[in-house]
């Protein structure tokens, strides 16, 4: 077997295991959390978010995405991934929110009712 054929065979078996689109995209959220923390401090917010809290939120969203990602249609995943990475600030929280909102729009009866300062 030639080297090219062997390489193609090995590459082909790796692609059959899990297509890239079936995996949650790898986002570099560290820079986003650093920028968020810096912005919060610059604005003098009383309840600014720490870098550790931001990273905890991002990792929790990434874990939640691993359970819903493969069930979401490809066009929705592509659209939400673009939205979550827009402006150079990728975020798993934004990606998860986009997918959840699309699902809620599709079937609003399953969405939890919001409670706030209503008379009820």
Layout: helices, strands, pairs:
Layout: H1 3-17, H2 30-42, H3 51-68, H4 74-85, H5 92-106
Helix pairs in contact: 2-3, 3-5, 4-5
Give me the oligomer status. Answer: single chain
SSE arrangement, N to C: HHHHH
The helicity comes to 55-70%
- Rg on CA atoms, Å: 19 Å
Q: Given the helix and strand composition, which structural class is it?
A: mainly alpha
As residue ranges, the low-confidence spans are 3-20
Mean pLDDT: 80
Strand elements, count = 0
Description:
By secondary structure, the chain is an all-alpha fold. The chain has helices at residues 3-17, 30-42, 51-68, 74-85, 92-106. The model is unreliable at 3-20 (pLDDT under 50).
Give a nutshell description of this structure.
With 120 residues, this protein is an all-alpha fold.
Properties at a glance:
120 residues, mainly alpha, 5 helices, disordered N terminus
